[in-house]
Amino acid sequence: MSTDPSYQEKNLQIGTQPEDPEKLEGVTEDFEVFKQTKDGVNFRTVGWPMATVIFLKTIFALGVLSIPAAMYSLGAVGGALSVIGWQALNTYTAVLQGDFRNNHPRCHSIADMAGVVGGPIMKEVTGALFIIAYVILTGSGIVGVSIGINALSHHAACSVWWAVLATVFVALAASVRKFHQIGWLTWIGFASIFIAVFILVIAVTTRDRPAAAPQTGDYEFGFYAIAYPSFAAGMVASCTIFVSGAGTSAMLPVISEMKNPRDYRKALFICMAIVTAAYLSFSLVVYRWCGKWVASPSLGSAGQTIKMVCYGIALPSLVVSACLYLHVAAKYIFVRVLRESPHLQSNTMVHWGTWLSCTFGLAAVSFVLAEAVPIFDYLLSLAGSICFAPLAISLPAWLWIHDHMHYRKGSAIKQFSFWMHALFIPLGIFVMIGGTYGVVVQIKEAYASGQIGSAFSCADNSNST
Questions:
Q1: Contact 461/143 with Cβ under 8 angstroms?
Q2: What are the pLDDT digits (tens) for 213-255?
Q3: CA nearest 325: which of 144, 92, 114, 96?
């Protein structure tokens, strides 16, 4: 291997995988987006335990509130297999993204990685999808917070005003510049949602019949081991489960702020193991005891009193989740704007003006979107189909193929591995097209039936399946 400095610089700038990462450790550090420095703002302060909790909070909150309702469309068996299958796939594609990022240290986001394999046009397309995805997720978080405040206040004011309040809280929390500084919020957020869902799980098992079901006479419970949904309903439910663990592209900017970026896998595996176990156990129990009467978000499934208790405990988590999604989207734009500028890690007016413009500007867009499509699970499905299908399925496979092109003409095992990864690309396209079609059909039916009111309506947008 050449030791010429110009060779090493070119190697890392164009994104070619270093032949020996250990020998290039110093060079790799030089090409990190954020430098470990005592002057200016040091972003590289996240250890792997804190990274694990940030990953947990990014992935866990919204999924555990939406999967029980998706179980009704897929049935207990189909839903359980979907949870296991999608989370296994999400974990693997997250490994592919993290490995590619650590082999190409100039990459700060999934858009930078797309630029390495597909050029500037692919970089801009991916960047747009990334921003749209996390703006949608921020909007879903705003909907969740407004529903929670509605539950606690007994609908004391118009839901739009609660959404405005939620947007302000989320924007202020997201305005903290470093992941390390919001780390303590993620601990509180993860603990609050876990406790709230645990209370819900216990509460639903103590009722004779679901809270939303008729309390006298016969009724259809709606629990199925195997269900036979329409294509649209099945795709929406599948996308809801998929997106509950597909936000792994949000982990990539965190890697750039880790003290040791190569601890990424350790944090990822712990996170996804906890997430998968929690999704599977919590969702199956809630669906088993609520059937078709499960609410979305699921915290409203055990009656008004428990709903208020659960939302009171979970409210910090809902705010933190939306804060993380907004922070990730804003950080992407912030780095894109100031990456080659001395203002990136300096406490200047340009630095702060750019950062606050990113956070509050995207928060305003999220608010408008949340009020335009105010049903929680539809927002999540929309994010999954339009954005995360290409970001979390197709693109990671392309990244792997870029670094392993030689496998195409290698041994039989290497060729098999190459073509299996190649199949991920059409799979992502299928989920994107089919899922978007399903969400559009379901939203159209919801508007026609009155389940969704007009945009910026004062109606409470929580609902039962």
A1: yes
A2: 888 888 888 899 999 998 988 998 898 899 888 888 888 888 8
A3: 144
pLDDT, tens digit, 9 for 90 and up, residues 249-300: 888 888 888 888 889 999 999 999 999 999 999 999 999 999 989 887 788 8
Provide the CATH topology of domain 47-464: Amino acid/polyamine transporter I (1.20.1740)
SS3 content of the chain, % helix, strand, coil (to 5): 75, 0, 25
* CA 51/CA 265 separation, integer angstroms: 10
Positive/negative CA dihedral, 223, 228, 232, 234: positive
Instruction: Judge contact between 154 and 456, C-beta under 8 A.
Output: no
Q: What is the length of the chain? A: 465
Residues 6+ apart with CB under 8 A from 402: 100, 116, 117
46: which strand partners? 258
Provide the β-strand partners of residue 464.
Answer: 295
- Are 149 and 315 a contacting pair, CB within 8 Å? yes
Are 59 and 244 spatial neighbours (Cβ–Cβ below 8 Å)?
yes
Domain boundaries, the chain: 47-464
DSSP helix/strand/coil, 89: helix
**H or E element, residue 37:** none
